Amino acid sequence: MPGRTSPGFVIAGLMLVGVCALTWALSAGDLPIGLADVFGALFRGAEGMAADVVRELRLPRAVAVFVCGGLLALAGALMQVLLRNPLADPYVLGVSGGAAVGALAAMLVGASSWVVDGAAFGGALAAMLVVFGLAHGDGSWTQTRLLLTGVIVAAGCGAAVTLMLSLATDTRLQSMLFWLMGDASGASRPWPALVVLVAGLAVVLPVARDLNVLARGETTASALGVRVRRLRYLLYVLASLLTAAAVTLVGSVGFVGLVVPHLVRFAIGNDQRLLLPAALLAGGTLLTLADTAARTVMAPVQLPVGVLTALIGVPVFLFLLSRSSR
């Protein structure tokens, strides 16, 4: 595309904007905290109420939403290569539906937060195994078959979610709905998901050159020496695990995994060696900005972050479609 921005410039800019987004997330809120107090709490071991708010409340939440955004954007980019479908997103194969069934079932019986997280992750893994087993039952595996299997499993999970919502009491229904729309207010343990994000990027970057070839078609990739079958297994398992970690951390947050890879691709092209880390940074930054806005725009009321990502994602995706049609 003529006039495309330098990839190095884009990645450096995304890193800078990401730092600014995290800084805003740590300083903004019902208790405004100055930049000096934020840096003092983080780097100089300052004490006091402001430092406690930064370290114990805002830092875990800011890290959680940044990690969740990075996980979803990276998983979305991998899914689009795996399925060779620009409309693929992290939730298309039913992993999010499985996580929702597990989490809402735990909420329905009044389980604690860590049990809800474990049930969500277990449900996501169960959905991943079901889709993989059904799509690969006779040894053949095509993008169409995998996609159709994922859509059917997601539909079944949606029916189960609807049933549980209809059975829930009023006291538990709101928390269940907030989880489905994406709720970062209870994300206090982001560090395991951060490890998953770093490990996932470390695993996929060495095969990014093969992903560039796979994007041109399986026949071409096989002719050029790419082990297509093994690479497809890796992409499916890795994208599913990234999605499971993201959904477990914050709940179902829409549009990040769909829109962000397209935005990055529009800016720097389709070279996966640059696209994947750039998508990670862009996804984390976008979700951090959205979450900070969600808890400050109508304070003290906190909006589900998934609502804002949808409001942002729909016009952005329509804009990208209009540009691509030209």
Compose a concise summary of this entry.
The protein has 14 helices and no strands. The chain is mainly α and 326 residues long.
Protein model, in words:
With 326 residues, the protein is mainly alpha-helical. The chain has one domain (7-325): ABC transporter involved in vitamin B12 uptake, BtuC (Orthogonal Bundle), CATH 1.10.3470. Helix content is 76%, strand content 0%. It contains 14 helices and no strands. It has helices spanning 7-27, 35-43, 49-83, 95-108, 113-135, 143-167, 170-181, 191-204, 208-214, 218-223, 228-250, 256-268, 272-296, 305-325. Helix 2 crosses helix 3 (49-83). It starts with 6 loop residues before the first helix and ends with a helix. The relative contact order is 0.17.
Topology:
Blueprint: H1 7-27, H2 35-43, H3 49-83, H4 95-108, H5 113-135, H6 143-167, H7 170-181, H8 191-204, H9 208-214, H10 218-223, H11 228-250, H12 256-268, H13 272-296, H14 305-325
Helix pairs in contact: 1-3, 1-13, 2-3, 3-8, 3-11, 3-12, 3-13, 4-5, 4-6, 4-7, 4-11, 5-6, 5-11, 8-11, 12-13, 12-14
User: Globular, elongated, flat, extended or rod-shaped: what is the shape?
Assistant: globular
Category by helix and strand content: mainly alpha
The helix content is: over 70%
Backbone CA Rg: 20 Å
Can you write the helix and strand succession as a string? HHHHHHHHHHHHHH
| CATH architectural label | Orthogonal Bundle
End-to-end distance: 12 Å
Q: Please tell me the overall pLDDT.
A: 86
- CATH fold group: ABC transporter involved in vitamin B12 uptake, BtuC
The count of helical stretches stands at: 14
Total strands: the figure is 0
Indicate the proportion of strand residues: under 5%
Contiguous runs where pLDDT drops below 50 for at least 5 residues: none
Q: Total domains, how many?
A: 1
* Biggest sheet descriptor: none
CATH superfamily: ABC transporter involved in vitamin B12 uptake, BtuC
